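Issue 218. Parser rejects a valid record. Input:
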Amino acid sequence: MPKGRPIESIIMTITLKNVSFSYTDSLYDAVIKDLNLEIRSGECVILAGESGCGKTTISKLINGLIPLYQSGTMSGDVLLGDKNTADMTLAEISRYVGSVFQNPRSQFFNIDTDSEIAFGCENLGMDPEEIRERVNRVVKEFHIEHLAGRNIFHLSGGEKQKIACASVSATDPEIFVLDEPSANLDLKSVADLAEIVARWKKAGKTVVVVEHRIHYLRDIADRICYVKEGRIAYEWTPAELEAKGAEYAASLGLRCVNLKQLNEMGDARLRGHDKKGVIAGEAKQSLNEILVFYDLHFAYNRKFPILDIPTLTLPWGQITALIGHNGAGKSTLAQVLCGLCGAWRQKRKVRKYGAYLIMQDVNHQLFTESVLEEVLLGMDPPNEKAALEILVGLNLEQYAYEHPMALSGGQKQRVAIGSGVSSGRDIVVFDEPTSGLDYRQMLAVSATLQKLAASGKTLLVITHDPEFILNCCSNIIRMEHGKIAEQYPLQGNQEKLVQEMTTFSFDCLG
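Output the parser choked on:
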């Protein structure tokens, strides 16, 4: 293939034949077990299933990271058309397969957004004029004109995910492999992502999406393949799974296929919370107490202020959801509250010792050699029995003596949450705690946060996850452009929340 020439559209079926794989030093004997899967050219296929079932491993088999990059024991064949990936280099595979990883930072090579979007095309040796045309095209397709020329390190998690998707799209591969691409996106951005996936499919591209959030692909995907213990256990069309009902999907650890089902389930969930005392029970003695923060202002430079909040009130001993579009300033506010960024007229040292932040990218705050040690790290004094109880509540007890970095993305997320629970701080701030979590694990995190609030802690949760909010939050704060746009209790306003958080998806997907 001549250097710099775009790949002509070809018919390329993805075939996995009797594939088994286990990672070196894996926690399991085999992650993938005698897997057979065929994805036809031009199909959009969702790989769904509970955290740790092997979905991401299948995606790495398709894009060649296994076995060419990550070590382990493999048998069977992975074919792209008639080519075996074992006989190809990563450079050859990358001409056919473009990947977007769960953590977009892991695939960035530049500091500014324009250079990052152009990087893949430059790597393929394309003509400079063609690169400019491709970059301009994907910027318009992804509606990210406002992100042009920006410093990548100043973007929110969702904005970084958009740049990663745009960069891969610019190279125009035949196959797109996406690992949790919607994990940190607000629902407007998810609707934008759905439009892009639909455009890829219309152009004849093959799209493989590892996802817990299925709803935005229900009118686009051809099949949902449910992975369990390293095998394809079930296959449905989105319509078939939706017809089985939200409760059936939840029993398999799957999220709603259609967000409109939240309106059907929200009232029942909230009634259940009242009985548990989460909204109106054990924390009742704290309902009239509030925390007030004054003069929360922050800017990376004076020309571009990020936060302008004269006052912020948080109900003591309750769980408050902080919602808003990507780039609204939510993560920056979290860092300011915890003393990680400066704020006028506030003592950072006091905030550091009063609040604990669980970051969006939890890889930055996993430090020890085992999961148990990670939870014990913030305890004063350390209490192994209490730490193990926290792990049981998060369904992590079986990994207590494993290295945190050997876990899946969703499992790492829960380890970091466990560290926040054990910290003993009065205020705990969670930045997207359910990104990368299946429905069952989301419920486990919800239950843990409810217990934490019932013990008198004040929780602020940044989230784009309406299912999670309905399960455990009692108050809503919505941010726009670095300001508090509105604040209201969830009780009596659940329909308002669902409408507010799902409007863009309904408009986009019908």
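Fixed in the parser; the record now loads. Confidence is low (pLDDT under 50) at residues 1-9, 266-287, 505-510.
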